[in-house]
Batch of 2 targets.
Target 1
Amino acid sequence: MAVEQTLILIKPDGLVKSLTGNILSRLSEAKLIIVGSKTVRVSRELAEKHYKHLTGKPFFEELIRYIMGELHSSNRVVAFVYQGEDAIKKIRDIVGDTNPENANPVSIRGAYGRITTSGVFENVVHASSSNEDAEIEIKLWFKPEDLVEDIYPTKEITVSNKKEIVWA
Ligand code: IDP
Ligand code: MG
């Protein structure tokens, strides 16, 4: 079995329901290691890139509002990169089916997810579903310096006249 990485997001419903601890406890059953973690303000651009594969779906606009936190008066998600053997499947098994009504009741989505009256699957967490998706998603949410392992090739570039915000 190969060592894989996977992106986990605790979505805004997971945060406002105070489920972070419960979710991390459940994910720890996979015996993987965390190689990066951060709290991220989700811009529309980031949301649309993350859900690019669903562009055009009838629920797309609501999904973008959901991941941006507009349905929960929250503007953040907490993101993790987990690493280990067979990480993608191990995490997806614990996370459960996309539709919380079909998800195994002991999975995270089965236990804590719901379908809203407007039809969004509020399913508490995101987890990558393939190695290809994981690479795209991890590169979207994390910079190389945010991770404690060099999982993908990097290059050095020189940026001049770049504005940067530092502590005042
Ligand atoms: P996944 O999150 O299990 O990988 P995707 O098909 O990638 O599922 O969909 C991304 C997210 O879009 C889901 O987690 C869920 O929040 C939402 N979603 C997917 N399919 C539907 C649907 O048929 N109705 C409403 N929301 C959906
Ligand atoms: Mg997916």
Note: The beta strands are 3-10, 33-41, 76-85, 114-115, 121-122, 125-127.
Target 2
Amino acid sequence: MYRFAPSPTGDMHIGNLRAAIFNYIVAKQKNEGYILRIEDTDKERNIDGKDEDIKEILIKFGIKWDKLYYQSKNLKFHREFANKLLIDKKAFCCFCTEEELAAKKQKAKDEGVAYRYDGTCEKLSDMEVLDTTKPFVIRMKKPSHAMKFTDDIKGELVFEPENIDNFVIMRRDKTPTYNFACSIDDMLMDVSYVIRGEDHVSNTPKQDLIRQALGYDKKIGYAHLPIILNQEGKKMSKREKDSSVKFLLDSGYLPEAILNYLVLLGNKTPCEIFTLDDAIKWFDIKNISKSPAKFDIEKLTQINREHIKIASNKRLSELFEMDIKFGDLIRFYTQEGSLIPEIKNKISQIYSKKTIPSEYKEYVDLIKNAISKVEIYENFNEFKQNLMKLTNLKGKNFFMSLRILLTNQTHGPELSELYPLIKDDIKEIVSKC
Ligand code: GLU
């Protein structure tokens, strides 16, 4: 079983989407199921409606989940397993207050040493624990040996017990921490492999430790994806607009282009332009580079143009919210723009009321008048020659006026190439001026 486990705490970041795509691709390759697990146990950080946004985005990208879980619904299992860890003495109750812990953290900071939980409550006897009415968290006991795992991108990783520390698994309010809920759910949902961002590398030994302490011996495979850097070479923060999937979609990037770009990023691929189905045929997580990849919006823009060129008329009509008959015209205008709104704008200029510069007004009127009289020729040359004859215009006066009349622009593509794509609508187009 594979899974994508987003927290509904903000807009989906391209790093999250990349993990969602990679897990999906590998699940398809292995013919295994794919779970969407909304990790909503941190009530303070949850934002209403973000779960729906996540689902909508995945659907747009063609990522279909077989099962949907809300992690908060699993709370009773989290509590039961925390209880078992307490009974088995693999975990302990900690009554230290926030203030006490803050003072110890400050002391470690002042002394220039890394803070670690000092084991105060691990030493309490059962009677001392039972006698206490103070609120408590539950902490894991440290492993007796170093925890190791082999990451399919980073290689073998080793974590010493002191770096795993007595991490908290249940909060004072009896809700599980991320590491605990995630570890238990991956076990209960029979997850076999996890691809996620490298910010989770140090969580993996903790999650493995929890499952080992519960006697679960299925080995879960891991691949942690290097972070995505911005153009300045810094970690792409959630606040940077280009990092938001919603922002990219709203700007007019196609889901298929974003997907293509995210699979291409820091990867060795057999070609540059491909679809999700193509990637399922050859994707190998081991080809992902260990070093961070740089997000290049120019490259994404170029890929977007290529995907517009290969999209079917039906797909273009959905994406551009235009009649299916505009497919060829949309593809044609990739020479002028790469994003949906840029291209849409060029086409709507053709079909909307024109603004005629005064120096061309007279010529435009002549041409417009002539067009209403001529038949619509298949061929631009015949059309043009006929109009020149009827209007007695030539050179710039003729061509610029015709261009303005047809496109509402003074620059643009070759009219001879544009003409076949709009000739059936010519009378309608020139009536709007
Ligand atoms: N909810 C975590 C996140 O969004 C999940 C990480 C994981 O895949 O385990 O970062």
Note: The mean pLDDT is 96.
